[in-house]
Amino acid sequence: MENIDSIKNIRSNFLNKNNTIKALPGIYRWWFQEDGAMIILNQLPNINRNMIQKREINKKLYFALYFGISKDLKGRIKWHTCQHHTTSSVKSGFLSTLRQTLSSFLNTDMTKSENILNKFIEENCYWEWDYTETHQDAIDIEKQELSSCSYYYPLNISNNRSAPKEIISCVKCLRKKYNK
């Protein structure tokens, strides 16, 4: 992928109306700094850390925990980083799946987790993205990523063929527990 930036910078750029991410189809990865990744990974059963992609960013180790696609990358990252945790967005299921999942791992119900989650992702996360010609191209890449024999993304639930089933079940259970 060609583009990467910290969530802190991306969120700030949206809030200051200085965003440069384009409203085009594409793929993306969420990278979690090692300490933040361990908060999540230590709550999952049978995690094989060797099966999670890692890379150094600004001299720190990061883990790729989530892979996604979108018809509109600009809208997607804004939704993931700037969404409000209103009671209606949580109850209707409109809160982003990633925000729901991370709220669960931070052990707080979703209607009360907005500030905690924003702080966590700003301190721990980078977003990497790349544009694709079409949304179908992004779908095809996602299918390949979530079927890899070399690595898996433990926070992906849908169509994740590479992560062990007990990990996906655990993520689903945690989300259900904190969906209040």
Describe the structure.
It is a single chain. This protein is 43% helix and 19% strand. It has 180 residues and is an alpha+beta fold. The protein has a five-stranded antiparallel β-sheet with strand order 1-5-2-4-3. Helix 5 (97-105) crosses helix 8 (165-178). The chain is globular, with a radius of gyration of 15 Å. The relative contact order is 0.22.
The unreliable regions are none
**Total DSSP E strands:** 5
Mean pLDDT: 90
Structural class computed from helices and strand pairing: alpha+beta
Distance between the termini: 36 Å
Helix content: 40-55%
Oligomer: single chain
Alpha-carbon Rg, integer: 15 Å
Shape: globular
SSE arrangement:
Layout (H helix, E strand, L loop, with lengths): L2 E4 H9 L10 E8 H8 L12 E4 L2 E11 L2 H10 L4 H5 L5 H9 L8 H11 E7 L3 H11 L19 H14 L2
Antiparallel strand pairs: 1-5, 2-4, 2-5, 3-4
Helix pairs in contact: 1-3, 1-6, 5-8
Outline:
By secondary structure, the chain is an alpha+beta fold. The chain has helices spanning 7-15, 34-41, 73-82, 87-91, 97-105, 114-124, 135-145, 165-178, and strands at residues 3-6, 26-33, 54-57, 60-70, 125-131.
What key attributes describe this structure?
180 residues; alpha+beta; 5-stranded antiparallel beta sheet; 8 helices; 5 strands; 19% strand
